[in-house]
Amino acid sequence: MASLSLKHIYKVYDNGFKAVSDFSMEIMDKEFIVFVGPSGCGKSTTLRMIAGLEEITAGELYIGDKVVNNYAPKDRDIAMVFQSYALYPHMTVYDNIAYSLKINKVPCVVYDEENHEPVLDENGKPKVEIRKLTAQEIDDRVKEAAESLNITEYLDRKPKALSGGQRQRVALGRAIVRHPKVFLLDEPLSNLDAKLRGSMRSEITKLHQRLQTTFIYVTHDQVEAMTMGTRIVVMKDGLVQQIDTPKNIYNYPANKFVAGFIGTPQMNFYNAAYEIGQDDIYLKMSFGKIRLLKEFLPKIKDRVIAPGRMVCVGIRPESIFLYDEKKKNDKVDVLEARVTVVEALGSETIVYADLDKENEGSITDNLTEVRIKMLSNFEVKVGDIVKVGFDLTKIHLFDIDTEEAVI
Ligand code: ATP
Question: Is the shortest distance between the CB of 48 and ligand 1 below 6 Å?
Answer without folding.
Answer: no
